[in-house]
Amino acid sequence: MHLSAEEFKKQRLFLAPMAGYSNLPFRRLCHRGGVDFNTTELVSARGIVYNGLEPSLRYLLIDEDTEGPAAIQLFGYDADDFYIAVQKILDNTTLSRCSAIDINMGCPVKKVCQTGAGSALMQKPEQAVKIVRKLQPLCAGAGKYLTCKFRKGYLQEENTAAEFALALAEAGVDRICIHARTAKQMYAGKADWAVFATVKNKLLTHGFGALPLIANGDIKSAADCRTIQDMAEVSGFMIGRAACGNPYIFAEIKNPEFKVTAERKIDDLQTCYLEMTEMLGEITAGKEFRSMIMPWIKGYAHSTAYRQLCGKLTYKSEWLNFFPTLLELFI
Ligand SMILES: Cc1cc2nc3c(=O)[nH]c(=O)nc-3n(C[C@H](O)[C@H](O)[C@H](O)COP(=O)(O)O)c2cc1C
């Protein structure tokens, strides 16, 4: 799929990359649930350089025919690592069909930041710029957009997003997404949506007002999107945790009348599970699906019993017997 520059700019709703959740089967549900653009979870650029694509293939896998436009997200520090990793992606028949390469500049996890990658790049903007400058011609030459996802800042109270965004804009990034928390905040506290206006103003005053800016952090409803839109002229919204257990949130935002039926939820859960078994085998899929299903069943009167039951499911036959029992919970 090739998105024209016009189409690329028009994308409104994004699924956030989430390690352990935003795999291809789940992203397909989001696509059917109204998302405009998907992103894979983070994969190490250096890992690809040293071990090739094969060990990370399950995380890198995209299929735009069934999930819509998608980006592959990489993390790392060294610009040459990124260059080689992207070259390998572009040389792969399946992966080269992605619409964009996204660089993770927001991961707060210690193991990642210690290597200078993820949100640590916000403390070294010159390195982040080097990465974008190195990748921009490669991506543009292959018809891929280059995007970056970062945070409000690195330290607890830091707000460096505007300068950081400007530096990336000058380096040639095609779209930015900001998680409105600092890295030190991890996922705690309320996201500070005021950051989007600060960034937008900075971009506008330096002639980059047209650069698509995606808002992220604690977005759970159409009302949240409107609130953010009233605060700043963002071009889209990225949703993470609120989509886990509710891939229909995108349709709900687009159409307030939209209501998902219990039958569809069960059918979708089963489809997602079966696709995971095809990808990962029965045992691994069963294990991973146990945590993926948790957000779907929380908040109901009998959730606890269902949660305990899920914790014991392993084999395909057990899962297939379990799904229909969810009808009682969902209606
Ligand atoms: C379980 C989990 C895994 C995540 N993995 C990634 C990741 O691989 N790459 C990334 O850029 N952000 C990752 N994030 C951050 C999300 O993309 C998003 O920025 C964050 O959850 C805030 O959005 P939300 O409030 O809508 O969830 C992850 C978040 C969670 C909860």
From TrEMBL:
Class in the EC hierarchy, top level: oxidoreductase
EC number: 1.3.1.-
DUS-like FMN-binding domain location: 15-321
Gene3D superfamilies listed in its UniProt record: Aldolase class I
Cofactor(s) recorded in Swiss-Prot or TrEMBL: FMN
Keywords tagged on the record: Flavoprotein, FMN, NADP, Oxidoreductase, tRNA processing
InterPro entries hit by this protein: Aldolase_TIM, DUS-like_FMN-bd, DUS_fam, tRNA_hU_synthase_CS
A Pfam family this chain is assigned to: Dus
Stated role: Catalyzes the synthesis of 5,6-dihydrouridine (D), a modified base found in the D-loop of most tRNAs, via the reduction of the C5-C6 double bond in target uridines.
Family: Belongs to the dus family.
Protein name per Swiss-Prot or TrEMBL: tRNA-dihydrouridine synthase
